[in-house]
Design brief:
Blueprint (H helix, E strand, L loop, with lengths): L9 E3 L6 E3 L10 H11 L1 H16 L1 H17 L1
Antiparallel strand pairs: 1-2
Helix pairs in contact: 2-3
């Protein structure tokens, strides 16, 4: 009834996203730079949300006070 689907020759590494032949997945060692880039890519929506939440907080009265206080402390430390 259903024909079996062919298995792909290459699969992405779940940690770094590099496309590898299936038989090489177990022996693969991720390049550190590629791994970091892939992790950031996967978290891009959370990073964008954080930026928006931080901007919103800094516009609030409490955030404005924190900015003022941080600047004040920075000037006194100098």
């Amino acid at each position: 009834m259903f024909a079996s689907f062919p298995q792909p020759a290459h699969l992405p590494c779940p940690a770094c996203g590099e496309s590898l032949p299936q038989e090489d997945l177990d022996a693969h060692v991720c390049a550190h730079d590629r791994w970091i880039g892939y992790q950031v890519f996967q978290l891009r929506h959370e990073i964008d949300d954080f930026d928006a939440e931080l901007a919103s907080y800094l516009e609030s009265p409490q955030g404005q006070f924190e900015l003022w206080y941080a600047e004040r402390e920075r000037r006194f430390a100098a």
